[in-house]
């Protein structure tokens, strides 16, 4: 099972509040995502929220049709005083 961190400006700002964002496989349930994050990062997850992004067909710059796959994003809220070092920003 894959779990890929989302490292965008918005997700890094959410990480400061203790909410971490990951791309996960579409078939995973919230409880399976919770167990996976607990095992991989050795933390205690609280709330798990998920969003599904539809796939479809779009045109590229040449006008050819390209199939876009659907994805699933999970936002994980950790327990108090826990964090994932992967999302830490380096200071100036």
As a percent range, the share of helical residues equals 10-25%
Estimate nothing, just give the exact number of structural domains. 1
What is the count of β-strands? 6
Structural class: alpha+beta
Oligomer: single chain
CATH topology: Alpha-Beta Plaits
Query: How would you write the strand order of the largest sheet?
Result: 1-2-6-3
Q: How far is it from the N-terminal to the C-terminal residue, by CA?
A: 35 Å
Could you say which overall geometry the principal axes of the C-alpha atoms support?
Answer: globular
The CATH homologous superfamily name equals RRM (RNA recognition motif) domain
Q: Which CATH class is shown? A: Alpha Beta
Note the main attributes of this structure.
single chain; 92 residues; four-stranded antiparallel beta sheet; Alpha-Beta Plaits; two-stranded antiparallel sheet; alpha+beta; 2 helices; 6 strands; globular
């Amino acid at each position: 099972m894959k779990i890929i961190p989302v490292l965008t400006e918005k997700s890094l700002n959410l990480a400061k509040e203790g909410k971490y964002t990951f791309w996960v496989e579409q078939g995973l349930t919230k409880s399976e995502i919770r167990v996976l994050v607990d095992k991989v990062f050795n933390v205690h997850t609280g709330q798990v929220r998920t969003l599904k992004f539809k796939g479809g067909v779009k045109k590229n710059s040449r006008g050819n049709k390209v199939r876009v796959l659907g994805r699933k994003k999970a936002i994980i809220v950790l327990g108090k005083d826990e964090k994932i070092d992967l999302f830490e920003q380096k200071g100036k």
